[in-house]
Amino acid sequence: MKPIIGISVNSLRDISQNDVGQIGVEGQDWQLIAADYIRAIERNGGVPILIPNIKSLEDMRIVLDKIDGLLLSGGHDVNPRIYNERNSGKAGKFDNLRDHEEIFMTQYALEKDIPFLGICRGLQILNITLGGTIYQDLPSAGFPAHSMSNSLRNEPSHSIKIIKDSPLYEIFERDEIWTNSYHHQGINELGKDLKKAALSEEGLVEAVYLDDKKFALAVQWHPEMMYDDKGMNKIFEKFIETCK
């Protein structure tokens, strides 16, 4: 039987009918996700379902008990109040409901040892859930820009060094790969028990994992967008295989 993979979604409020193809009416809230995530799960033998942002954590438990794996997707910046920092004004828009819900989802998945894959924001949520912090804006913290919006989504932007003995090294069997890059935040202080799996050229954490779980890996780049890269596909292949 194919494993069921739950995928978290974005909430969008400042959006027009033109943005959503003239469906619905003006002023509605929308919950949506890029199809790249869905296709990556389908392509590797999983059944994707979208987990909406709902207010009841009890209802969320019911949803999480039905899935075989959890994928936390990218999206809005995390509100710095969550990790006890003052808002620097350098972050983007926040979604407080999604922040609290995804932290709960992450805690629950780790507690129940549900296989977990975090992508971009998903890496940051995992780190914050485990007590870590993030840079609110990488250039302001002295790092080169990592948000390469002028490149194609499947186009590599920079190289990363993979740490040996990490799950990422087992997947790629290489100590260096090139990735795309669409983020302006990143890990500052590492969360409890998290281990580094990859670093950028300047030392920014690009991937983390927990070694006491079936599968708990998070990456800062977007492997789902790199649909024509066999190595990136192996991340989903390994994740879904563990979910079976």
From TrEMBL:
Look up the record and report any one GO term of the cellular component aspect: cytosol
Tell me the GO molecular function terms: hydrolase activity, acting on carbon-nitrogen (but not peptide) bonds, in linear amides
Q: Which SUPFAM superfamilies match?
A: Class I glutamine amidotransferase-like (SSF52317)
UniProt xrefs under InterPro entries:
Class_I_gatase-like, Peptidase_C26, PuuD-like
Q: Which domain of life is it from?
A: Bacteria
The lineage is: Bacteria, Bacillati, Bacillota, Tissierellia, Tissierellales
Q: What is the scientific name of the source organism? A: Peptoniphilus porci
UniProt-recorded name of the protein:
Peptidase C26
Q: Which Pfam families match?
A: Peptidase_C26
